[in-house]
Amino acid sequence: MAGGDLAASNSEQGYYVPRNYVGSKVAPYLGQWMLMLLAWPIGALTHWMMADSAQLPWLTPGLAVMGAVLAGVAWKAGGTRSPITQTHAAVTVLIGTGWMVACAITAPWSNPLFGLWLYGGAGLAISWNIRRAMRGGGDGDSSGGLFEKVKLAGVRTKAIEVAPNKVTAALALPAGEIAVEDVQGAANKLAGALRLHKGAVRISGDPDDLSQATMTIVPNDVLRHPQAWPGPSAPGGSIVEPLVPGLYEDNEPVQLWLPGDKKTARQLTHVQVNGMNGSGKSHGAKIAWTEIATRRDVVLIVLDPSKGEQTVGFLGDNVHTVTGHKECAQFITRVPAVITEQASQLGKWGFDQWVPQAYDEHDLPFIVLWIEEASRVLEDAATLTTIAEEARSAGISVVLSQQKSSFRRMSTDIRSQLGAGWCFGVNEAADAGFCLSDEVMEAGAAPERWKNRRAGAFYLEAPGIEEDRMVMPARTFATTDADMSAAISDCRDVRAALWPRTAELLGLPTRPAGATAAPAGIRKNFTPLHSLEGMPDITDEEASTPLALPSDPESDLDGDMDTELPDDIGMDLPTGRPPRRVARDRLRRIVEKLVADGSQEITVRDLPDPETTFGRGRSWVSGELAALVRDGVLDEVGTDGKATVYRPARDHAA
Predict the structure, then answer these.
(1) Taking the mean position of all CA atoms in its chain, how far away is CA 122?
(2) Predicted model pTM
(3) Do 173 and 147 form a contact (C-beta atoms < 8 A)?
(4) First to last CA, the chain
(5) Cα-only R_g, the chain
(6) CA dist 648 to 44, 59, 79, 651, Å?
(7) What is the rounded distance in angstroms from the CA atom of residue 336 to the CA atom of residue 308?
(8) pLDDT, tens digit, 9 for 90 and up, residues 379-403
(9) What's the pLDDT tens digit per position in 137-158?
(10) Residue 250 to residue 253: CA distance in whole angstroms
């Protein structure tokens, strides 16, 4: 059912809708007048057939009984409508049949019948026109009948917006008579009246005016098949940019923000993820992990006390992972000390919450602590409560994922600290109630209708998301572990390291083994200092053993102490990987020089080899070019089929 079908339902009301504007406004009011005009010739035919009949004394009572029966049928048929509509229809039938009885006795072209037909019929037609105008706001709106069908007479539509596979209608509710919750409760009945699938109609209220609401109709279920994953949404970017795990049903990207933002008054949030076995919860987590692991100023730590490598295996050694029930339980006990240390340090630097400057200036990254099968870790409720209550001040976002967050599995103290709910298919509505708010569920969110039959379908309720999107279903992208692992590996040069003190308190290396790998061109020339972490210590015996040298090294060289040495051959000695700030300044100077030299279009191909110039890979350069766009130095103008094309911003043009 396309968006225009709401208006097209006028055909069910028994009239034709012309294509021109004036005709479309007048047509809904003509039906009653056509019936009034038709009543006179029918009355004349009745008089011609019955007036002189010997059976007239029997015919007129029969017509009267027929009128009463038809009036009863009209009353019964109008049972789903408002009482006034029910009464109006029955009275109209009685008047019409009464007119026929009168015509059987008296000619309709004589008075008073002619006057009764002319003025009485016109008055009856006008009464129906008035009802239609009042119901539709004077615009010929036919949706009033739709609401009468579900016993919500008085609700009327105002502005209607039609988009591909989506109709949005503003609703006006009779103040004090019908509440938004009443309309929300009838959403599935409205879908049935429109012959649509369950969940096709959603109602959201106006927080500023309870007499106003918005009805959203999505006729076609576009989430039946997941869309292909386009890759990480912001490789090399900051964690302040939202994670994008999938698409809403209107093909808009789902956005999940974790850090806080003072400009929008958005608080750093913890997240709970719920979904029954087979609902696609783990796949959604993997996409989110990939999003996080491709950012430059965040460290992801994944705890999985149950499944072990089955879930986290694709991460390889690129991300900190802790597996095993005992290991995860011990790790959790170390987190409160980290919270105290990082919060104290942020305060000394003048930050009341984590911001990107904490990493850019002091190398303190944002931390996402993601706990799979959280019910097995929640046994230590006191520690988890402390973490949930205090971690935000230290720049740590906690994600708790489990099948159901019932009261036996999660305390209300912990649940009250989780500002975001990511709910996949569940077995029943009560299960979703542990993850989503009552307001979102009353507005139409119903993950129980999927159960585990539509893996990856979900609702997301989180800070920064518009209210109408919280009740809009979405689905995760379709991708493979291999593709996500490759994307994570491509960004190994941009990932942050744990702050040294944090790593010490957690008992982790500052970088996982996979994150320490330098680009190929650098790796063969030197070993980064941080890659020595985790290497076995050299024993005293090994250290005291002299290296075995050739007995006659370079015996083919001739000369003695008086031999003149050759001039310096200018050999390039290997140098270390430059610090991030140095590499960033170096890139900016190169870009500014290209602009000063008159370059109108710049791609990564116009830059020197990133591995030798910046000690980083191409993905890092792409991320930094995107940062220059955000800083107003460059403008992104599209792609040339192989790479993104940038142009100098006007304020920075030569």
Answers:
(1) 54
(2) 0.56
(3) no
(4) 54
(5) 37
(6) 85, 92, 69, 8
(7) 24
(8) 777 888 999 999 999 999 999 999 9
(9) 444 444 557 887 788 888 888 8
(10) 9
